[in-house]
Amino acid sequence: MEQKILTAKPGRQSANIPKEIVNILLVDDQPGKLLAHEAILSELGQRIIKARNGVEALEQLLRNDFAVILLDVNMPNMDGFETAALIRQRPRFERTPIIFVTGYNTTDLDRLKGYELGAVDYMFLPVVPQVLKAKVSVFVELARQTQIIKTQAEDLAANNRNQAQQLEVIQKLNEELREANSELETFSYSVSHDLRAPLRSLTGYIDVLLEDYGSRLDADAHNHLQALDRAAKRMDCLTRDLLAYGRVARETVKLEAVQLQHVIEEVISLIGSQAAKAKITIEPCLAEVLAHRFLLEQCLSNLLSNATKFVPPGVAPEVRIRTEVRANQVRLWVEDNGIGIDPTYHRKIFSIFERVGDMQKYEGTGIGLAIVNRAVQRMGGFCGVESAPGQGSRFWVDLPAPAKPAA
Amino acid sequence: MNQPTGVPIILLVEDSPDDVFFFHRAVTKSKVAATTHVAIDGVEAINYLQNQGRFADRAAFPQPDIIFLDLKLPHLNGFEVLEWIGRQPQRPAAPVIILTSSSEPEDRERAETLGAALFLTKPPLPEQLSEILGKINKC
Question: Beta partners for A332?
Fold first, then answer.
């Protein structure tokens, strides 16, 4: 019977079961009976502990937990019922099953007394080995199950504690991240307001000087003021570009199908005077892309502003914008007739503050292409350039194509 | 007594003396006749609108026809001033124009939600002011 229960265990636990040996307490004043019961029960493979009287039994109970107590009713000094009463006084043994063993013709009253004391069963002498073994093995199995459940509960509790601790760590990290993020936002906000305010005053007063006192200043003073104005405006560009770079990094990205045509027209109108001088050709029927509107605007405005800026002196900028549909991607091309870029620098130019080769002769902050790169990455796309010095540049941006509605 | 002359009354809420100077200059260059009163923070702006404190004299500090409001202000910021205006049972009729160094779209959206009529980035240009003040004059 016991074997059957054992093999019925789920695989994960079966490895633990042979280790879970439980204790059985035999209490009897007659050594012969103790020995006989021990012999019968030894087949269960559990640990058997013997006690010769009630006192010894209580001593054993102080040291060990027992799956079941086989308690002789008829003992000198302290009989089985008295022993059971003492055992039950201790909360730890409130539920330990007790099987009374009695040779008497036990009256119903005695049996009732036994049950009141928490007996779970009676065995009458002479004991039938199979019956004793079967009865005890039920309690052995019960104790083992309880033990397993207890271990699992402890494991679970430990796991829960671990998880709770990990969760706490994650929550703390999250909190720190949130703080860092909000500090960063506060930082860029003050860059936007506080750093740019004095710059505005600077350029404002330069204008005042030139307008109101210009006639009283000599050529050198004019040059100095213009240098001052350029420096202040450059600083203003830098703070603006850094802000855009920061915003591209922290913007929450939500991709949606975007008509390139609209965005490009809007961006061109915003670039203003620089674009007005350029001949910009937009191919008809541009493909739709999956993009985040703000990030796409940042990409296009920087690419277009570069395309119209880096032209050799005396050359009118010409820009061509077209798309190529490739599987589930759309490649957007921005092609110019500018100074071109040496292939050695084709990767480097997308890093922040990298201004290489002839680019350095032009006004710029070195942030524009870093904004493009980051914005494209954040939309799950790629960007690059095909170019050589003197041959213009062809910048490309790969963006996912919107899913086609099922035909 | 400014009002009877028909010149629009501007309330400029601005803490930076530089920006106050540039505003005055832009108004002058816009060639539109207007009287500008300055409140240097959000609390002063509310005091002005209620004719309290140093603005108690209603004749000297008449209710404005238009308000130019900076967002970053000491004590009460521009958003809080906008909120206060929105809470008034008799809402001042003067349109509120946000004048700020911020080009953050969040600021613009928030200001518009709170009832700002227009959002201008500093410095205000004389052409912008003449257009805006010209509309006030027609009313």
Answer: A323, A397
